[in-house]
Design a protein that fits this description.
4 helices, single chain, mainly alpha
Length: 84
């Protein structure tokens, strides 16, 4: 799990850098993050209903928040395991 991917996804979404978000979608090892980005970008480009775009964006943002919290909780455990 690469925490940098989540930070980048949040940054690109906030700055509306869709090209960089697409590149991140292809390069990330997190399949669920890639799927959330894909769903959001698809809705953004093809949907005429703003509520669908908004729903997909919030789904992406909630996943990024969840993944960041999970990565933060695991990080101390991984560092401790490396010392042993």
């Amino acid at each position: 799990m690469n925490k940098v991917d989540y930070d980048r996804a949040l940054y690109y979404t906030h700055r509306s850098e869709w090209d960089n978000l697409l590149i991140l979608m292809v390069r990330t090892k997190d399949d669920l993050l890639a799927k959330r980005i894909e769903q959001f970008l698809h809705a953004y480009h093809f949907s005429r209903d703003y509520s669908i775009i908004e729903q997909n964006m919030y789904t992406l943002l909630r996943y990024i928040e969840h993944a960041n919290l999970t990565a933060s909780e695991r990080e101390p455990m991984e560092e401790h395991a490396m010392k042993i």
